[in-house]
User: Fold these one by one.
Assistant:
Number 1:
Amino acid sequence: MRLLEEIIKTLPKEPRIKEVHICAFDVAVKSLDWGLSSSFRDPCSGSSPAWVRKAGQLIGMEARELARYSLSERLLEASLGMATLNSLSDVSGFNFQEINADRIVLDHGREKNVVVVGDFPFLNKLRPEVKNLWIINRLPWEGEDGLREARGVLPRADVAAITGSSFINHTAEALLSLCPRAYTVMLGPSTPFSPILFKYGVDAICGARVEDPDLALKYICQGASFRQIKGVNRATVFNPETDNT
């Protein structure tokens, strides 16, 4: 988990947790700012506890300490950790653009080999436009099975779209290592806006920024999936070393 450790080291130490909302599909945390993540948990019948340590005592906690939950083997803790990490990210140096991830994947992948890791609404639109499309979509606790599948196709990709949820089951770093020649897009609400991703081969970071917290929380706390949430801006930042837009 070297990638996550590197990102955590860049986070500020001072902020503390102000709000935590762990809901059906999404986690929202406020510290320095608001951060989001997809919400996953282990099967309740599994051998590992599915709950969150220190639940009920998270408000006021040092935010960087809670961000380290992203390293946890418990999926719900890792989800909470990613939302906290995203709430601490310094985005002041980024030039954000309002470009949807599906457009980026299509523009770079037309008539080429495309691999998508995750489940996204644009897949049906993408299929007739590309030469080959491979989709790897596993349950969060099946990360190792997904990696085995990815090893067979990601090295062949001209374009790779990888869900930010791969940070939650700790497959992100391995997935990125499998596609060194591909134009790589990391996308989804769990995706951290960190320049360290560029060092690991990401060309476009497509994540989420909370613009209207009251509106967004109304949706999140009432069971909305990320696709339904209002008050959130889908934003993209490109790797300055590979951006040719």
Number 2:
Amino acid sequence: MENRVAVMSIIVENKESVEPLNALLHEYGEYVIGRMGIPYHKYDISIISLAVDAPQNTIAALSGKIGNLEGVGVKTAYSNFEKHD
């Protein structure tokens, strides 16, 4: 299966979804290249940028699970790079 490199932009508006989000990110941790989180106190939200290297269906599954969390939005941008193992 070919891997893709992608960046996920995540906006957390519901603080109660932080723990389930962190559990998901831990579950998919083997695919995470890096993560940057920024609390934006002015609007009481968190902004997370997540770089991943994984099969496209794995990235899509993670994105779908994140998007199903209450008060959490996610958008994924894929690179054109495909790694063949």
Number 3:
Amino acid sequence: MNFVSTKEAPEAIGPYSQAVQVGNLIYTSGQIALTPDGNFLDESVEVQTEQVLTNLSNVLKAGGSELGKVVKTTIFLENMEDFAVVNEIYSKHFKEHKPARSTVAVKTLPKNAKIEIEAIALLGEK
């Protein structure tokens, strides 16, 4: 088991790792709209989704993977009415790659974020 850490994504805000690599898989912790220097983007769901996906991409890169190797994501939304706009931004980042996914509405997220995304991805070859 290897713990992944990068300065290109925000540090964990609790007792957990940005990601953990086990075998040929990397499991990311949920990412919210924190910048790498720890500032929270308390803005629209569009702005937050872009930052979340940038953070997720940077954590995966640090662990030897990428968005194109993601096999499963879980999206947590503060408001399910944001589903369509999140899908639009998500599809721009994942392009033709379509990993398995779950999306759930939750009462609250850390820092009152509008969105959080976690992923499981392959290492090495696709």
Number 4:
Amino acid sequence: MKTVILATNNAHKVSEISNALDFPGWEFKTLRQMGIESDPEEDADTFLGNARIKALAAHEASGGMAALADDSGLAVDALGGAPGVYSSRYAGEDATDQDNNDKLLVELADVADADRTARFVCTLVFIDEDGSEQTAHGTVEGRIGYAPQGEGGFGYDPLFWPDVFEGTCTLAEVPQARKNEVSHRGNALRELRAKLEQGL
């Protein structure tokens, strides 16, 4: 059995990752499940940089086990790519999803519909037991709405209208399985799976 440490304790991510990378003999465990303390400072200015920081820290803290980390966020064109790497703490270090969504709506209050384009971005870094690294990147294009809509998902999902749904619903209004088919993390995981399969 190959155990891969996920550099997260987010249950949403654990489920999505384990379903996408369901290689025979692989199991995925969070830091908490493995009893590992790893909370490095994410001080890079790119998604790739922060994902690499987390993956390396988990790899080292586990004594050299395989580790997978992601860094993801929302990039809004009218805000010059913000909130970007600061997506989870856009409204402050202890901000809730609602706090972040409220701030985003305030920042975009005077922005016309045509200029509310945005994308979710996800970068994955996988470090194997031998220290080799694979990276993958995924995005999903869309627009920011004017009020939260939908009870599912998390983060900015209730405000994000993916282009692929052609204006019919937000990411928070679709079942998790459907979201995984189009999401930035789903796209990044499919790219990573293809790369990893070449080495199996």
